[in-house]
Amino acid sequence: MTTLYSLGLGLGTQNNNGDWLEVFYPQPLLNPAADTASAIADAIGFDGKNTTLALDGDLLAKLATALQGVDDALASLCETLGGSERPAVLVLLTNDVAPTTVPEAYLKLHLLSHRLVKPHGTDIAGIFGVLPNVAWTSEGAIDLNELADRQLRARMKGQTLSVDCVDKFPKMTDYVVPAGVRIADTARVRLGAHIGTGTTVMHEGFVNFNAGTLGTSMIEGRISAGVTVGEGSDLGGGCSTMGTLSGGGKVVISIGKESLIGANAGTGIPLGDRCIVESGLYITAGTKLNLLDDQNQVVEVVKARDLAGKSDLLFRRNSTTGAVECKTNKSAIALNEELHKNN
Fold first, then answer.
1. What are the start-end ranges of the H helices in 45-167?
2. Known catalytic residue: 220?
């Protein structure tokens, strides 16, 4: 029997040289059933190595036949894709290793946004070097070297080809719309984001790839690459979290459960549960903090990194002295249930 880490059957876009620009996987699978993996492996002559395979109509029909009675949903998808005008692709991943092809990279991003894995739950090392920079347009993904010609041809037809952005990552909702979420501006959530059930991402909220929420959260600030936000936490308007791509190094920033980062505040250290960062205060690993006792007296001066991951802390700035202070947080953060009850 064949064992796979993941498989994806999808449709993609290629440039004029046949290079993949992007791939859409309607039903990505994590740890697919052994009989499903074996049926596919036998049909394509799988050699046991991570494989990216372009599919024509004949091969799709062969796969559909092999999967009948084994995985009827996947067999039906093969039949459906057989009528597509876009190129089909099959990716089989034996092991969870860094992606080496665009279809492999897109499968990993789909696993994240389909909530099949959590942030940091699959290897996407080097993904920036694998993914091409693409023009995301009203006609789909276009190779940048081919964009000017496509724009000209559109104009000749009396049409305008609209370029929404130029980026390596598309917006998530063009590929995956997770159940039970609200996203006010879909352009601000990248494919590869993990948006937990019950999360609301407001207009100025942003969620990067390999990052996101693990449950019900209100996101009005920025969740940078690699950052996770726990159940019941709130990121206020204009706030930020330091991602591993923006100076965090190898430290993985996370926000625990029922925590609050106030408006225009931010953190460069992991926070535990039930923590508050006062509005306008940005904490980095080297920020010096006055630790206060229950009488608001300074008992010790430490660096913020010394408190990384600890729970029930309130970070604030003394309005008289300007010193950054930390004391035990005795209040609980509760999200407005009215905001989430219709998710």
1. 57-67, 72-81, 102-113, 127-130, 144-156
2. yes
Single out the residue of 124, 102, 111, 77 nearest to residue 14, CA to CA.
102
Q: What are the mean pLDDT values of the chain's consecutive 10-residue runs (343 residues total)?
A: 94 97 98 96 93 95 96 96 94 97 98 97 96 97 98 97 97 97 97 98 97 97 96 96 67 94 96 96 95 89 94 95 90 52 50
Cβ–Cβ < 8 Å for 16, 143: yes
Residue 311 one-letter amino acid: S
Distance spanning both ends of the chain, measured CA to CA: 41
CB-based burial label for 279 (10 Å; 0-12, 13-18, 19+): middle
Concatenated DSSP letters of 179-220: TT-EES-GGGBBTTEE--TT-EE-TT-EE-TTEEESSS-EE-
Question: In terms of Cα–Cα distance, which of 190, 194, 236, 198 is closest to 213?
Answer: 194
Q: How far apart are CA 332 and CA 343, in angstroms?
A: 23
- Rounded CA gap, 156 and 151, in Å? 9
Q: Own/partner pairs for 59-62, CB < 8 Å, 24+ apart?
A: 60/88
d(CA 58, CA 64): 10
The two tokens of residue 212 are 């996101």
How many Cα atoms sit within 13 Å of 329 on the Cβ side? 23
Q: Which of 22, 79, 204, 220 is catalytic?
A: 220
**The pLDDT of residue 81:** 95
Radius of gyration of the chain measured on its C-alpha atoms = 23
CA 27 – CA 184 distance, rounded (Å):
25
Q: What's the whole-model pTM score?
A: 0.93
Q: Which amino acid is at 141?
A: A
The tally of CA atoms less than 13 A away on the side-chain side of residue 300 is 6
